[in-house]
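Issue 218. Parser rejects a valid record. Input:
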Amino acid sequence: MKQLSIQFRLLLVLLFFSSLQAKDKYLDNHSCNECHEKIYEEYQSSAHSKSYFNDELHRKIANKADAKKYECATCHMPMANNLKDLIEGKARPDKNNKTHTDAISCYFCHTIAYVKKAHKYNLNVKARQAENFKPTLYGRLLNPDDSDKHSSSKNPIYGQKVCMGCHSHKLNDNNVTIFRAMSDKQNSIKCIECHMPEIRGGAEKIDKKARGQHASHKFLGIHDKEFRATGMDINITTTVDSIEIKLTNKMAHPLIVQPSRSKYLVLQVLRDGKEIWKNYKEKPQEDKEAFFEYRFKDKDGKKIIIPAMAYSREENNLGIKESKLLKYTGMKLKKDDVVKATMFVRFAKKDCQQVIKLEDEKFKKAHILKEVTYKIKGK
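Output the parser choked on:
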């Protein structure tokens, strides 16, 4: 019965997406460059430009989860002209197909009509375009300019729910949440304000209406060193024999969103430049309260790495604007000792690297999220 239910849900999804197959002319990413040079340049450095072909971590996790079907195409290859076949396993990603290599394309993001909420994951519903007419692209601008390629219109969805199509939640076939970034009560404004800040320069090469600024399409995130440091506060207080660390998640989403990642605290006491104490001996995981991650188990309760196959999930996480107080005792602090608190992030935690082989060096090491030091003062 459960298998039948899963198949039925999948059939509904396939029927839904088959109705969205683009019959109108597809405007590829490069075509946007003619009028929107600055935005195109920003987009090229963004996570949205990362596809199955140039995002090693995504590709290898997707292949490990299912070597035949590419169900991730729903969000990672949404303009594929054979989306239904990719999801069913009748086709594989094709590096010679522009609707595949464009990843989360400009055209797709600017033709979303509304977001259909669902239990397993939400769906972006693409606007139908009239045949033999220029397509209409949507955004947040008042009185946007048309061009020879498209007409333009403001759509309220771009200030409300547009991010929820892909960035809300994802459940696997066993009803286990493997990704959650937003709640149904949130809107996209906070996402846009944080990840798409207004910067100088018009949205077009020729700024006809002298707007003077536009929303950045870099979609700044965890891979940007300066940006990721803004998402957390670390406060240190001490006594003679104790240290208290207050960690505060300043973001409008949980501290851990992606199941492949981990974030953890390394706390050190330095005396004359040498480490005399640390919050763990060998591995950061020893300090369980300061190691943030999703942990998945199979139906027998044993640890499992690939979340698509999990039957249950545990986590140590910080919710939206949530704080956590960590207390460490047993050291004897002296004047001029330095307490150093460093939060690290791994884009692919070591557990993940046990089941997929990664070549890109950025996935093999830890990156500093934020670092704070505090010098002990004497009387």
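Fixed in the parser; the record now loads. The two ends are 72 Å apart (CA to CA).
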